[in-house]
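2024-03-11 09:14:02 DEBUG pipeline.ingest accepted 1 chain
2024-03-11 09:14:02 DEBUG pipeline.ingest length=53
2024-03-11 09:14:03 DEBUG pipeline.predict start
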Amino acid sequence: MQELTGKEVEVRTMDISYRGILVEIGERDIHHLQAETGWIVVPVEKVVEIKAV
């Protein structure tokens, strides 16, 4: 996943998809996904898929 850092990605959960620049991935959270609407933090246990856009 570290190869996606700095790239535009789509992060999918069971409920919603987020799109933005992946700044950092932590052990518990996807940290600092920079989206048009601001900064987003998604708990890792809710992530279904992360892919480059």
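2024-03-11 09:14:41 DEBUG pipeline.report The mean pLDDT is 88.
2024-03-11 09:14:41 DEBUG pipeline.predict end
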